[in-house]
């Protein structure tokens, strides 16, 4: 092939990062993973809590998802079974160091046998409860806005997909799965209808043993396909049954 001479690029480049909103459910509470910003000289928002993420490395990252997974491993020591691109945010004021653009992913992670390990420039990690669409704290950069957008996306998709199954331990009961749906959606679901739809979707495998505890034994299940979510034909309803006129109370 003949050599093609490329034009020299001569224009300002924005700071380019990837951020990840990682959700889990613990103690019947929806939580998001936050990292503590470093306090070194010149660091923006020193000591403030933020979403995990960092700059794209063109030598290491083949694409944006590669960068997201690398940053997750560097800053938390874990990988996630579900990762989805949320969107991009950029302007001249979100980062005091200059014009900045970030590409955001949201992820779901169960806490079964997971031990977080802070790394990179993240000095501390914590699972913060998500209340009223934000954590109740002033997050670094525009991360509160990003978190609110991710929460809206999560709740919207939970209405008609099996996403909450990615927050479960390897083995779980249908009651535990339903409760995870309810925690995310903020409302109760009708038990019989929920079980019928989940089992009819054929997305779970039966585990050959029961969960034994204070209540009567319950059947255990595991997620059949850990790579993608199942899409239901219609959204999940609430726990309120229709009245005689066909309207919900």
Walk me through the structure.
Helices cover 20% and strands 25% of the residues. The strands form 2 sheets. Strands 1, 2, 3, 4, 5, 6 and 7 form a 7-stranded mixed beta sheet that branches. A two-stranded antiparallel sheet has the order 8-9. It has 249 residues and is of the alpha+beta class. The chain folds into 2 domains: 15-157, Nucleoside Triphosphate Pyrophosphohydrolase; 159-223, Winged helix-like DNA-binding domain superfamily/Winged helix DNA-binding domain (Arc Repressor Mutant, subunit A).
List keywords for this structure.
249 residues, 2 domains, disordered C terminus, 9 strands, seven-stranded mixed beta sheet, Nucleoside Triphosphate Pyrophosphohydrolase, Arc Repressor Mutant, subunit A, alpha+beta
Topology:
Elements: E1 15-26, E2 29-36, E3 49-50, E4 53-55, H1 64-76, E5 82-91, E6 100-108, E7 125-129, H2 143-158, H3 174-185, H4 191-200, E8 204-211, E9 218-223
Parallel strand pairs: 1-6
Antiparallel strand pairs: 1-2, 1-4, 2-3, 2-7, 5-6, 8-9
Mean pLDDT: 86
Supply the CATH architecture of the largest domain. Alpha-Beta Complex
- Please name the fourth-level CATH homologous superfamily of the largest domain: Nucleoside Triphosphate Pyrophosphohydrolase
The global form is elongated
CATH class of the largest domain: Alpha Beta
Structural class designation = alpha+beta
And the CATH topology of the largest domain? Answer: Nucleoside Triphosphate Pyrophosphohydrolase
Strand content of the residues, in percent? Answer: 25-35%
Q: What's the main sheet like?
A: 7 strands, mixed
Task: Return Rg in Å.
Answer: 21 Å
How far apart lie the N and C ends? 71 Å
Overall number of strands: 9
Number of helical stretches of at least 4 residues: 4
Note the run of SSEs as H and E. EEEEHEEEHHHEE
Helical percentage? 10-25%
Low-confidence parts, pLDDT < 50 over ≥5 residues?
Answer: 241-249
Number of domains: 2
């Amino acid at each position: 092939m003949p050599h093609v001479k490329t034009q020299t690029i001569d224009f300002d480049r924005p700071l380019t990062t990837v951020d990840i909103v990682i959700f889990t459910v613990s103690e019947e509470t929806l939580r998001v993973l936050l990292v503590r910003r470093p306090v070194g000289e010149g660091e923006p928002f020193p000591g403030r809590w933020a979403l995990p993420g960092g700059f794209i490395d063109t030598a290491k990252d083949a694409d944006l998802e590669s960068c997201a997974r690398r940053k997750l491993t560097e800053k938390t020591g874990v990988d996630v079974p579900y990762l989805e691109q949320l969107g991009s945010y950029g302007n001249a004021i979100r980062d005091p160091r200059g014009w900045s653009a970030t590409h955001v992913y949201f992820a779901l992670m169960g806490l079964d046998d997971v031990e977080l390990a802070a790394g990179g420039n993240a000095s501390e990690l914590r699972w913060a409860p998500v209340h009223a669409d934000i954590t109740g704290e002033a997050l670094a950069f525009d991360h509160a806005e990003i978190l609110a957008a991710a929460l809206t996306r999560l709740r919207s998709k939970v209405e008609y997909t099996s996403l909450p199954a990615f927050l479960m331990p390897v083995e779980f009961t249908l009651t535990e799965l339903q409760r995870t749906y309810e925690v995310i959606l903020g409302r109760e679901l009708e038990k019989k209808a929920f079980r019928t739809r989940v089992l009819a979707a054929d997305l779970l495998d039966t585990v050959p043993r029961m969960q034994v505890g204070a209540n009567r034994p319950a059947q255990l299940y595991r997620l059949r396909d850990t790579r993608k979510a199942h899409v239901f034909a219609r959204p999940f309803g609430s726990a309120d049954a229709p009245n005689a006129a066909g309207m919900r109370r």
